[in-house]
Amino acid sequence: MTKKQLIMEKAIELFAEKGFEATSVQQITDECGISKGAFYLTFKSKDELILALIDYFMMQFTSDIDYVVKNTKNKEDLLYKFYYTIFNSFSKHADFAKILIKEQIRSFNEEFLQKSHIYDQAMDKIILSMVERLYGDEIHQTKHDVMYCVKGFMKTYAELFLFHNLPLDLDLLARSLVEKTNVLARNITIPFISTELVQLLHQSKGKEATKDQILELIEQNINEIEESIEKESLILLKQQLIEPALSPAIVKGLLENIRNHTQCKWTSYLLRDYFEVL
Predict the structure, then answer these.
(1) What domains does the chain contain, in order, with CATH numbers?
(2) DNA-binding region spans which residues (predicted)?
(3) pLDDT(187) > 80
(4) What is the pTM of this model?
């Protein structure tokens, strides 16, 4: 475990127990067994640490959902697996999600807002591709409305078990939301959200990652990890970005090699999207 991973892991435990405001850098360093100087060599401030934690969880969440949508071959299972994966992830990280929403994160600076827009835009793209695959021309005029309805289900039902301590039956919840989504998708007749409106929203939120930005992220991953298979795969994927020479099957295999590494999940997502790997 790297020093950065240690700090983030211990900070999550303290934030869940005490909250953001009540947890000091000194308490975090004491829990980690490191000096304040070592902390500030990794993070410039507690605010930067909090943003890194949010970044980390959003990367994990978005990349996992994207993988499920792209790799579920049976359309009959797709919507169920989508909802199950989402709420299973919320359940696993419930403590952090609770304090994040409860405290409304005081560091709403430009960097945080930009990151939020990027993840929101990525989720829009994932959900839209799913509903297009599921319902096809049947919802051509209303597909963006369906997408926003799905996002509404995600938010509303997550709050139910995050803040009301209700017993969570993931299977029942996923099946129930599949039914609701199907009813909405097949019966909506009056579109409100147009393609043009979505494009305007995305323009205001920011642009997708460029090739140079992906290369920079890969280089960062290569420098941070030690595992040989993941590192070798990243080196080959970096070369593929610079000078394509590998077959789609090999690229897909390399992406599988890095997909479950916690530090490479976002890289895997960006590369899957860039190479259009299904």
Answers:
(1) 1-43 (1.10.10.60), 48-205 (1.10.357), 211-275 (no CATH)
(2) 24-43
(3) yes
(4) 0.80
